[in-house]
Design brief:
It holds the Pfam family Entericidin. The structure is a single chain. The protein is an all-alpha fold. Helix content is 95%, strand content 0%.
């Protein structure tokens, strides 16, 4: 049972890592846009 749980965890982590490679650029753009909006509100 522990082996199955460990394998499932590793597979989920691998899938998350692979998906993260595609979405990391988009997340960076979203964070940048949020920062720009905060700067506009502050000035």
């Amino acid at each position: 049972m522990k082996k199955l749980t460990a394998m499932m965890f590793l597979m989920l982590m691998a899938a998350g890592t692979l998906a993260g490679c595609n979405t990391l650029e988009g997340a960076g753009e979203d964070i940048e846009q949020g920062g720009e909006e905060i700067q506009e509100e502050a000035s």
